[in-house]
Design goal:
The protein has about 450 residues and is an alpha+beta fold. The chain has helices spanning about 5-20, 40-55, 70-80, 95-105, 120-125, 150-155, 165-175, 195-205, 225-240, 250-260, 270-275, 320-330, 330-340, 350-355, 360-365, 365-375, 400-415, 420-440, and strands spanning about 30-40, 60-65, 90, 130, 135, 135-140, 145-150, 265-270, 285-290, 305-310. The chain has a 5-stranded mixed sheet. Strands 8-7-9 form a 3-stranded antiparallel sheet.
């Protein structure tokens, strides 16, 4: 977002160019950094803050390409795989970073001493590194947790446990569901996508005792834990969810919650700063937080993710890109957002120093629950049966993206009532087997 300039400053560049021309000196155009990012709240704030970066680096201009999550993933994946060179900085996550870093598709992030890489939360630093080298810097980190309307739960005579079970949540949803008054008991993701509905559903499957692949890499979708989890999900959402839930992902559910239309919402911990912000949320003073729900095991009940900034190997503007990435993921950036927007609005889940700041802890009533969720997520041990892959809500293999998208479409269709749960799981199993056999994981 470009700030309005006064008359003098608007024409200042012209005077500079004229002076350079008179002196016979070349006038260098500013380096234009093209940055691809997702249309989430913290990224919108980053765009507002960019004027500070440009003022400190007058030789760099930033151009933003802001996209919906699914579109962003497609665009950056295509660009990096084809060495298209469209972007100088990409917003990617814990799924892409280790795979692309290993392939040599990303530049190593080379932070200086002032950046304080040791201040990054270990879970975030580890998930964005390959062989101890950082290939993306976390802009914000998250796990998942339960956000709920404490006033509605209390009025219903119910109590929310610190770590509820899915059965307990369904019982509470039944008590607070009141569509006549525009309140739905349970809001959950339904929009298809490996990072949309499947991010949430994978954690649900994990805690019901399921996994994506067994130790022989055979897909495990058409199994009892998946049937139990997806059957529970579809049934609960049909009874207590909002209409049209099969089209809802993070932003849609956030809007519903902020309007006071969700009794409970299980999603990214990063949402906590938005739902508790009175400028955005009509129920900011009524929201409370609990850990993500469990079923037969606590393993893999809450995901681990970071939206991070990475530099594609094909960028011709690496020095400028490194400067921007360090600036936007630094301790100083957190302080800048705190100064301009308040401590409740800072990007969280990345740095130890944020959680050691008294002003943040005072402003963010969700801080303790958020950090606990992040600290307890373990991508190396997220399923009850042993699994061959790393990842909580995804399997960190290149083939997972296509499999996750295909399965996500089936799960969304089951939620919309277009197919049965059994049909959706059988079709998903076939699609996953075909993809894994084609890639040579097994015969």
């Amino acid at each position: 977002m470009t700030p309005k300039l006064n008359q003098a400053s608007r024409f200042a560049p012209l005077f500079v160019l004229a002076a350079l021309a008179a002196a016979g000196l070349p006038a260098h155009a500013a380096t234009e950094l093209v940055i691809a990012t997702v249309n989430n709240g913290h990224m919108i704030t980053m765009q507002k803050m960019t004027r500070h970066f440009e003022q400190a680096n007058p030789d760099i201009k930033v151009k933003w390409v802001t996209l919906e999550e699914g579109v962003l993933r497609q665009r950056v994946t295509t660009d990096i795989a084809t060495k298209g060179g469209q972007f100088d900085v990409m917003t990617i996550g814990m799924y892409e970073t280790p795979i692309w870093g290993k392939k040599g598709w990303l530049k190593e992030i080379a932070p200086d001493a002032g950046y304080d890489v040791d201040d990054l939360l270990p879970a975030m630093r580890g998930g964005l590194s390959v062989d101890g080298k950082l290939y993306a810097s976390p802009f914000y980190g998250e796990s998942s947790m339960t956000m709920y309307r404490a006033d509605l739960v209390k009025a219903a005579g119910a109590t929310m446990p610190e770590r509820p079970t899915w059965e307990q949540l369904r019982d509470i949803a039944a008590k607070i569901h009141n569509p006549g008054k525009g309140v739905y008991g349970l809001c959950l993701r339904g929009k298809p996508g490996w990072g949309d509905n499947m991010a949430f559903l994978s954690t649900m499957v994990n805690t019901f005792g399921g996994q994506w692949f067994d130790m022989s890499w055979k897909p495990q979708i058409n199994t009892k834990p998946w049937k139990d989890a997806v059957g529970f999900y579809v049934d609960a959402m049909k009874k207590y969810g909002p209409p049209g839930a099969s089209a809802n992902s993070f932003n849609e559910n956030l809007a519903l919650f902020n309007e006071g239309k969700c009794g409970m919402w299980i999603d990214a911990t990063i949402a906590a700063s938005f739902v508790s912000d009175p400028k955005q949320s009509k129920v900011a003073d009524k929201v409370a937080f609990a850990q993500a729900p469990t079923a037969v095991t606590p393993k893999g009940a809450n995901w681990l993710w970071a939206w991070a900034l990475a530099i594609p190997a094909g960028s011709q503007k690496v020095d400028a890109a490194q400067k921007f990435v360090k600036w936007a993921t630094s301790k100083d950036y957190v302080k800048l957002v705190a100064k301009e927007e308040g401590w409740g609005a800072v990007p969280t889940g990345t740095r130890k120093s944020t959680y050691a700041t008294p002003e943040f802890l005072k402003a963010a009533k969700f801080a303790e629950a958020e950090k606990k969720a992040i600290d307890t997520a373990n991508p190396n041990d997220s399923t009850l049966p042993k699994s061959p892959y790393v990842g909580v809500q995804f399997a960190a293999i290149p083939e997972f993206q296509a499999i996750g998208i295909a399965v996500g479409q089936q799960m969304s269709a089951a939620l919309a009532g277009k197919v049965t749960v059994d049909q959706a799981l059988a079709t998903s199993q076939t699609a996953a087997e075909r993809e894994m056999k084609k890639a040579g994981y097994y015969k």
